[in-house]
């Protein structure tokens, strides 16, 4: 018997995946409802409806036999599915969403529904400090657990980030921004990792990937995991969690909670900011003025990372 599907994925999901992956995602988008339905049948779940969110997956709401609500997520990329499930397994019981069931052949998993509703509950206050504590907690679990089979930060930096920065610097007409970008790029070869800080990194700490449970505690979801120096996550969170707003405050909080000095975090912030600046310039993203302001501020800061 064919499993009952939810029908076509929502228009927002379709648009985001096509924007992210291009026309090659068309066939998968047509198959996604059947993948979710097959996983639901296998996991003994009842599908309830789609949750229109995410850029790399199709997400549905479902319930278990006892009525417990869960998230059912189907990934477009099998490799990204494997990496995310591997990291979530290492972090099980920590400040993230636990994996309930997984179907490797379908690249579909049932995940804990955080906060009792899609998108989680509302934060209760002291958001910056609470999220920093969650990042530190995730890193502690990543150091203690077995190393998952995910890419290394060194590989990502050397084989992905630096080549795309060089390519964009050469191909884009940056006008008056060229000098600042060149100055930023001069510091890229000096980035160094501290092996003593190696952990499983979330590596995608945008605000949309931090939700809150019913007690107001942060959960870090939708990782793009790497293994490497914790400084990368702290720099990413500093720059991108709430672009342009409270960057200096996050940097100070990151240094206090992680015990990684501001002068060690700041060069990574600059590297991430210039990478984002060039990408936003290339696609003419509306956020370009914000990342430009962040990059300018980081480059204007002194050796201690302050004004």
From TrEMBL:
Q: Which terms are listed as keywords in the entry?
A: Kinase, Transferase
Q: Where is the signal peptide?
A: none
GO MF entries: aminoglycoside 6-kinase activity
Keyword Electron transport appears in the UniProt entry: no
Q: Which residues form a coiled coil?
A: none
Which InterPro entries does this chain map to?
A: Kinase-like_dom_sf, NH2Glyco/OHUrea_AB-resist_kin
Taxonomy, superkingdom: Bacteria
Q: Which GO terms describe its biological process?
A: secondary metabolic process
What Enzyme Commission number(s) appear in the record? 2.7.1.72
Top-level class of the enzyme under EC nomenclature: transferase
Q: What is this protein called?
A: Streptomycin 6-kinase
């Amino acid at each position: 018997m064919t499993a009952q599907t939810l029908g076509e994925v929502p228009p927002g999901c379709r648009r985001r995946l096509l924007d992210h992956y291009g026309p090659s995602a068309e066939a998968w988008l047509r198959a996604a409802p059947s993948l979710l339905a097959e996983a639901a049948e296998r996991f003994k779940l009842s599908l309830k409806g789609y949750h229109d969110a995410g850029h790399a997956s199709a997400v549905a709401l479902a319930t278990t036999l006892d009525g417990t609500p869960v998230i059912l997520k189907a990934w477009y990329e099998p490799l990204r599915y494997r990496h995310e499930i591997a990291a979530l397994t290492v972090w099980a019981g920590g400040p993230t969403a636990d994996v309930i069931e997984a179907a490797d052949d379908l690249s579909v998993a049932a995940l804990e529904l955080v906060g009792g509703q899609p998108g989680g509950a509302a934060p209760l206050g002291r958001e910056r400090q609470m999220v920093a504590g969650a990042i530190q907690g995730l890193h502690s679990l990543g150091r203690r657990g077995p190393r998952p089979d995910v890419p290394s930060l060194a590989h990502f930096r050397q084989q992905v980030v630096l080549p795309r920065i060089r390519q964009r610097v050469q191909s884009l007409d940056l006008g008056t921004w060229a000098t600042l970008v060149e100055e930023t790029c001069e510091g890229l070869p000096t980035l160094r990792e501290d092996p003593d800080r190696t952990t499983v990194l979330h590596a995608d700490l945008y605000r949309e990937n931090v939700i809150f449970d019913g007690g107001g505690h942060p959960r870090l979801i939708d990782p793009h995991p790497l293994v490497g120096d914790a400084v990368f996550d702290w720099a990413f969170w500093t720059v991108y969690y709430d672009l342009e707003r409270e960057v200096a405050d996050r940097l100070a909080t990151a240094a206090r909670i992680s015990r990684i000095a501001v002068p060690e975090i700041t060069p990574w912030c600059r590297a991430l900011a210039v990478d984002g600046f060039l990408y936003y310039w290339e696609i003419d993203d509306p956020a370009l003025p914000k990342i430009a302001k962040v990059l300018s501020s980081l480059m204007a800061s002194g050796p201690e990372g302050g004004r």
